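Input (structure):
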């Protein structure tokens, strides 16, 4: 192509093909340069003008793209490609409604335009319209049933609908065509982790490491598998291997989680800040930093980080809850209540916000409102132990022992967590003078969880109070055994 141009600089077709070759190599500046030369020779060529506009889209320069096709958009019969470029450009500008209009017109003209379909689908999901997104992608799949990008768009819809099984089927469909598809393997691994299929997820990670040994993604996935298994030391080993291949915000975030759950809060904070250096809008990392500040009584710092997320993402319920917790610790109770109310409005199932709101009402002397919030916390998450314990403690302090017992007994489910509930039930029976019932509960506690040491201490104390010293000593010896 270059030799053809040396012979005849006006050989515009060769120059156009050279531009396309540069584009395939990802050399967009050179592509732009050659296309502009072609347009000087052929200013009325719609194909070349559209191609140049698309290069501007790829360079994330939507205004330049729109300038290039502005005259074409005034024509009575606008080409589908031009409509698509306009839609993509307005999407980049954040003008979603205009973008949707152009993309719909492009697909009406040419239903097989995959780029228009995938972006339109994403915009519909952004608007909370998964059915519209699904309709767009299914129509496009009729023209290209095995297209990778369309299948990925379909998987995004399934994930939006919380249909992980459906998304997994799509990734397996992609992998049938290409068993080494990088992204499909990784996404499959993440879903397997969410399904607690850790051994299968580990196999996927090992395959990624084998097929792409120089890439970080396999090691990252392996680290996330171990993290989900709560094997934090092995997780850190794999995550460090991933980071040695390439710095990555998600990998640093997972590293931060490992340190956080190990109780190494300062190391966790460093890892979360490393993640933010690479991706400043990674709000979940910033919220963990806020939690660490809360834990360390750095309340102003906690407020600052939580406020940052609230300002960036006003719909983030967890951010409002953490901000409310920081205000509560600072003694700014009315502002705390505002944040808890907003958190619950955004996510009625946010248990911690209900509990904190209940504590606020207790402090304010509004017992009935506190009781309502504690009940709501149990309603939205009946298996969360803390909510049940909080409500039972409230009833106990109010000497409403029947209600306390009912609350605790309804939480028994034959799991090791029952030990704590049996101990609380025992305490209520002791207060009521029902010593034999209290003894029975403590024995049930040990039966449900032999590792829960308070059961043995409470049992020994009760035996001492009854004058049964030998049984008390035996209960204490059982701890050593």
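Output (sequence):
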């Amino acid at each position: 192509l270059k030799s053809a141009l040396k012979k005849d600089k006006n050989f515009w077709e060769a120059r156009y093909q050279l531009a396309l070759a540069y584009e395939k190599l990802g050399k967009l500046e050179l592509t732009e340069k050659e296309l502009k030369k072609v347009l000087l020779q052929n200013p009325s060529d719609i194909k070349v003008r559209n191609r140049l506009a698309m290069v501007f889209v790829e360079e994330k320069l939507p205004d330049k793209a729109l300038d290039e096709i502005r005259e074409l958009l005034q024509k009575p019969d606008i080409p589908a490609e031009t409509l698509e470029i306009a839609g993509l450009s307005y999407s980049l500008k954040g003008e979603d409604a205009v973008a949707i209009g152009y993309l719909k017109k492009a697909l009406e003209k040419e239903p097989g335009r995959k780029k228009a379909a995938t972006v339109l689908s994403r915009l519909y999901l952004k608007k909370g319209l998964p059915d519209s997104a699904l309709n767009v992608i299914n129509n496009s799949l009729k023209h290209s049933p095995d297209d990778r990008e369309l299948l990925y768009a379909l998987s995004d819809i399934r994930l939006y609908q919380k249909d992980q099984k459906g998304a997994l089927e799509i990734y397996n469909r992609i992998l049938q065509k290409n068993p080494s598809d990088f992204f499909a393997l990784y996404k499959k691994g993440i879903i397997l982790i969410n399904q607690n299929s850790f051994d299968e997820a580990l196999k996927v990670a090992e395959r990624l490491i084998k097929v792409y040994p120089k890439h970080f993604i396999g090691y990252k996935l392996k680290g996330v598998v171990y993290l989900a298994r709560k094997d934090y030391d092995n997780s850190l080993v794999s995550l460090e291997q991933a980071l040695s291949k390439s710095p990555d915000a998600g990998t640093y975030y997972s590293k931060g989680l490992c340190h956080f759950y190990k109780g190494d809060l300062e190391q966790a904070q460093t890892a979360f800040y490393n993640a933010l250096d690479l991706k400043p809008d990674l709000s979940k990392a910033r919220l963990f930093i806020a939690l660490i500040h809360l834990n360390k009584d750095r309340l102003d710092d906690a407020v600052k980080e939580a406020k940052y997320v609230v300002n960036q993402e006003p719909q983030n319920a967890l951010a409002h809850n953490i901000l409310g917790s920081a205000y509560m610790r600072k003694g700014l109770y009315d502002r705390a209540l505002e944040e808890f109310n907003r958190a619950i409005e955004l996510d009625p199932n946010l248990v911690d916000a209900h509990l904190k709101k209940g504590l606020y009402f207790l402090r304010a002397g509004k017992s009935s409102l506190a009781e309502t919030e504690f009940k709501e916390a149990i309603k939205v998450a009946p298996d969360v132990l803390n909510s049940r314990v909080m409500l039972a403690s409230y009833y106990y302090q109010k000497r409403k022992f029947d209600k306390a017992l009912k609350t605790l007994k309804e939480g028994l489910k034959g799991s090791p967590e029952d030990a704590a509930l049996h101990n609380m039930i025992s305490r209520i029976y002791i207060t009521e003078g029902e010593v034999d019932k209290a003894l029975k509960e403590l024995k049930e506690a040990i039966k449900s969880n032999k590792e829960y040491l308070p059961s043995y201490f409470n049992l020994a104390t009760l035996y001492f109070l009854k004058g049964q010293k030998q049984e008390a000593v035996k209960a204490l010896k059982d701890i050593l055994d």
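Notes: The CA atoms of residues 180 and 222 lie 17 Å apart. Residues 4-10 have pLDDT under 50 and may be disordered.
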